[in-house]
């Protein structure tokens, strides 16, 4: 009997994940498989770089309507998306450190959501716990008995091969929900995105993601590029049908029953179109000046190694000034930036010496063909620029291992998820009702992450500092305060973390969103 590759993979947990599911041929350095578009794709660098609209609080309040919208992503085609305020990316929220803001979300979509502020130091009840759903009015009546009910359980009611996983503590709201963010944390680039139980990946893919920038007086006092010379860049890959609709291999395209994706995409969904701020391979017109770029990898599974080079082939370097959780102690130069899903890099790029007419291409060393292209800058004119990057940026303590700290180990590996193949942490699929750890507030712990494939590990509530990567110290991408760390196949990364202030339920999970939905997530409880 001849076993096909598919039969072998279908045979269950015995299939070696990193070997057989990581498509190395078309996607080196990736854990995931390419989903190809059927749509006609535009030529690179013909679409102008869009900037999301900015929203600031009025009397401490920002209101956002989650709604379906038909958006032009590929020129001449319409794409039906799930959006914040009708745009993709959602509006960029701009707030200040220590000024509590309430973000009032109204759900006018057809599906439940949960909104998480990624990197926010946020009380548990506003953190977007996956079963703390915001349900659109009428949803329960429309889907009564469907099993897609309010806790969004593991596909209960469909097929019978899943048991319903209920969460007795779920806080469900209908119509509107207020998320309260104290933002008592240093200035940095955060982002908000959907976190619905079992269906985060397709709902983020469909458009539920936006920037949230926190500013503070310390950062304002520094000489840094600002105003038009500060540009947020949300990088995300997608795939499109001929008519412009998003493609995605969900087991249930209605996103109501069986969660997860077709088996062959279990390692992650990689699109073949690279979007920056929602535009395919855009071009940004800029002056010959220094620019601050807030880089965010908002892709479901794709990793990038970003490099810049001019049209005459001269490399242009990045000066990193900040990481996920705030400014670095001092600027650090890089030839390239490698980013996994969820990570942010705050960089300054110096275009001053380039004559008008020069173009600078941002390429992806982990892509092939068109996924090796990201975006392009075009220098339009000379300009004055009196920014002098400071030598010291912020007080960041040296990451040291505290003596006698509790060490917790978190193993990110494939696991059986209610009888199907999936992903787990410490051998267990996510159970919202059972936390895997209890962590005392105010104590410093050492957390160690172990992997089989690439797993970008994200921890809610508090940032961490990387102490070790494998047998070495922190890598070049591990500097400063991180909340997401790119752990490569069969690697161990050790971090130091201290949780403060907010007691309750928080998450640790893989930020490959397909892995997350297929249960690579665990709750921990701060006490
Ligand atoms: Cu960016 Cu728990 O997520
Ligand atoms: Cu993962």
UniProtKB/TrEMBL annotation:
Region listing for Disordered, in residue ranges: 142-176
InterPro entries linked: Cu-oxidase-like_N, Cu-oxidase_C, Cu-oxidase_fam, Cu_oxidase_Cu_BS, Cupredoxin, TAT_signal
PROSITE patterns reported in the protein's UniProt record: MULTICOPPER_OXIDASE2, PROKAR_LIPOPROTEIN, TAT
Alphabetical keyword list: Metal-binding, Oxidoreductase
EC number: 1.16.3.4
Gene Ontology MF annotations: copper ion binding; oxidoreductase activity
Catalytic activity line of the entry: 4 Cu(+) + O2 + 4 H(+) = 4 Cu(2+) + 2 H2O
Biased composition (Basic and acidic residues): 159-176
Record domain Plastocyanin-like: where: 70-131, 175-218, 419-525
The protein's assembly and partners: Monomer.
Family that this chain belongs to: Belongs to the multicopper oxidase family.
Protein name: Multicopper oxidase CueO
Organism: Nocardioides turkmenicus
């Amino acid at each position: 009997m001849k076993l096909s590759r598919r039969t072998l993979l279908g045979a269950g947990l015995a299939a070696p994940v990193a070997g057989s599911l990581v498509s190395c041929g078309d996607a080196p350095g990736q854990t995931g498989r390419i989903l190809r578009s059927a749509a006609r794709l535009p030529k690179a660098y013909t679409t102008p770089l869009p900037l999301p609209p900015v929203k600031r609080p009025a009397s401490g309040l920002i209101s956002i309507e989650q709604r379906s919208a038909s958006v032009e992503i590929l020129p001449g085609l319409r794409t039906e998306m799930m959006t914040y305020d009708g745009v993709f990316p959602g509006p960029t929220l701009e707030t200040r450190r220590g000024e509590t803001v309430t973000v009032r979300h109204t759900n006018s979509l057809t599906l439940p959501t949960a909104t998480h502020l990624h990197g926010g130091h946020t009380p548990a009840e506003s953190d977007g716990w996956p079963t703390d759903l915001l349900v659109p009015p009428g949803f329960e009546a429309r889907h009564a008995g469907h099993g897609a009910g309010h806790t969004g359980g593991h596909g209960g009611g469909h097929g019978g091969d899943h048991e319903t996983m209920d969460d007795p503590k779920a806080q469900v709201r209908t119509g509107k929900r207020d998320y309260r963010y104290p933002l008592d944390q240093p200035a940095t680039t955060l982002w908000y995105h959907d976190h619905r139980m079992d269906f985060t990946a397709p709902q983020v893919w469909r458009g539920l993601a936006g920037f949230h920038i926190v500013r503070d007086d310390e950062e304002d006092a520094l000489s840094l590029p600002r105003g038009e010379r500060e540009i947020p860049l949300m990088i995300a890959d997608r795939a499109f049908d001929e008519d412009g609709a998003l493609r995605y291999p969900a087991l249930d395209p209605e996103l109501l029953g069986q969660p997860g994706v077709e088996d062959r995409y279990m390692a992650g969904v990689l699109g073949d179109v690279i979007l920056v701020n929602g535009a395919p391979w855009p071009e940004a017109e800029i002056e010959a000046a220094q620019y601050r770029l807030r880089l965010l990898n908002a892709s479901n599974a794709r990793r990038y190694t970003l490099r810049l080079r001019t049209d005459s082939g001269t490399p242009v370097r990045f000066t990193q000034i900040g990481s996920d959780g705030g400014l670095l102690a001092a600027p650090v130069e890089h030839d390239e930036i490698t980013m996994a899903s969820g990570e942010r890099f705050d960089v300054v790029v110096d275009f001053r010496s380039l004559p008008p007419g020069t173009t600078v291409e941002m390429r992806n060393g982990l892509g092939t063909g068109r996924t090796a292209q990201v975006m392009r800058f075009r220098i339009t004119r000379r300009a004055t620029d009196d920014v002098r990057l400071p030598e010291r940026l912020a007080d960041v303590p040296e990451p040291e291992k505290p003596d006698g700290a509790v060490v917790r180990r978190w193993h990110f590996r494939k696991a059986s998820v209610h009888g199907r193949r999936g992903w787990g942490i410490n051998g267990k699929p996510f159970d919202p009702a059972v936390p895997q750890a209890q962590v005392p507030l105010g104590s410093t712990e050492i957390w160690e992450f172990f992997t089989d494939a690439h797993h970008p590990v994200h921890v809610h509530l508090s940032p961490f500092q990387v102490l070790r990567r494998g047998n070495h110290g922190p890598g070049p991408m591990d500097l400063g305060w991180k909340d997401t760390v790119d752990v490569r196949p069969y690697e161990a990364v050790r971090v130091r973390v201290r949780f403060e202030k907010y007691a309750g339920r928080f998450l640790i999970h893989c930020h490959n969103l397909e892995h997350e939905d297929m249960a690579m997530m665990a709750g921990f409880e701060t006490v």
